[in-house]
Prior knowledge:
By secondary structure, the chain is α/β, with parallel strands linked by helices. It is built from twelve helices and 27 strands. Helix 3 packs across helix 4 (295-303) and helix 3 runs antiparallel to helix 7. The protein is globular, with a radius of gyration of 27 Å.
Amino acid sequence: MDAHQRGRAEEIDPADQWVLNPQTGNYELRLNHSGTESPGASGGEGDPFHGVAESGESPGLVPAQRSAAHDGSGQEPRSGRRGRKQPRSRRRKVLLWTGGVMALVTLAGSAGAYALYQKFNGNLVTVDVGNAGSKTVAHADSPLNILIIGTDKRTGKGNEGYGDKGSTGHADTNILFHVSADRTNATALSIPRDLITDVPDCTTKQPDGSEKVIPGTDGIRFNVSLGQEGRDPGCTMRTVEKITGLPVDHFMMVDFNAVKTLSTAVGGVEVCLAKPVDDADSHLRLPAGRSTVEGEQALAFVRTRHSFGNESDLDRIKIQQQFIGSMIRRMKSDDTLTDPRKLFKLADAATKALTVDSGIGSIKKLTSLARELGRIDTKNITFVTLPVVDNPAEPTPVTVVVDQQKAPQLFGLMRSDTSLTEVKAQERAARAKRDAVLTGTRAKPADIKVEVLNGGDLTGAAGATVRWLQQEKGVPGSTNGSNAPVKIDRTTLAYAPEQADQARALADLMGLPATALKQGKPGSGGTQAMVLTLGADYEGAGVPLTGPRKAPEDIQKASADKAVCAK
């Protein structure tokens, strides 16, 4: 069933049957549906969350693909609830990113809360993707990876002119949201839809409960990992795993309606343009500077491509990242968190927009996930785009392929659970620790002579490492020795005592641990180069073997707490 065809027009809103009695602090059934309230209740119809903040329980907020929020000012937001200052509740910050923010009342034992729970739970659509979505979310002792998928499916009123006619819904916008094990930081990795990659075999559940294996296809666009040949979101999850080497625990999927309904529910999202835009394709018309967009205009903003940068999908990704970051700040503002009506609209809009895997396919499970993510400060959420290069197989490239030099560094950083906001500080600490062991002088990169052998499982590792050393690190004396005589588990660097300064310098450049350095007999250096043998522990050029992974240089990234104007 599609996420926006639920046929709920005849249903009575359960929230309208309950009102809060401030004398008891409990919700009570309103038997008269004419709009009258229980004695003493100041909340009324259309304000089902009235009094929640004062009752001792804060709304738990579960978000969606494109959001959550802070105003970015660096100041504590004002309470602003009826002019009274109230202590900020940590529970008000419980957020989950999926395409918007879903606000839920968690009043234990409250019949009214149960009615709201049932309403929002009924909005969700779930897909069984088997083991790909089976991870329990409520354990803050391991990293968590959630794949956010925005499809181009033309469902919902007013969406007939968008996307591809007759499309079953391709993976048009894709963000792998990596959350650290300690839940203090997150990296949102955008994956271009026009990336040429291999889509692996995947097992899908059929309507009758049977399983069907969809054969994999090599060398196709990433966006057809969903929809094409009957592929479900589980196939997209497995494709991301194949590309990044990161396990994908859950998915959340939305279509065009999510941007429209969520941006409207939050009261509009502020965007910034470096120049005025009048785009004939997306119908976006905005002046230079800051504007607030919602509904159709918000959708036009995130779909616009030809008015920004070099008119590629990579530049549209920057626009989408700006929009998501702005929505995060908006939803974390007190204008949203203290407005009961706005919270209700967000909860209703987000749950109607969401399709999720069965592992998080209930309000209870999403709330559990929200609590896990709620501690992340917006300044520690980094948007980054998968490093890519033009597809060399095309005379005039319109697609891209993974940058085999920079991407492994980024994947290694994410696998080591190192935040992009903390990399420099951690690199300094790791360098200081290594220097304490590798004491002594360092040779200049131009004076290093090393032969690189591949003794691991990574095809082409020796050649890629030599190119990286020569082009990125200024080591012209590095040569490719091809494959090592035997496979080894750990990378080693063999050197003569008189080459110690070269060995220490190369260890610094490559992030080699002191244990990798193997000193030979005096005089064995001479004119011979050192020998670096890459082992099974080697993950790619520029990916260090000790300490935190080093962030690749010149990658596209942005922080969720800062506004950047689109060019």
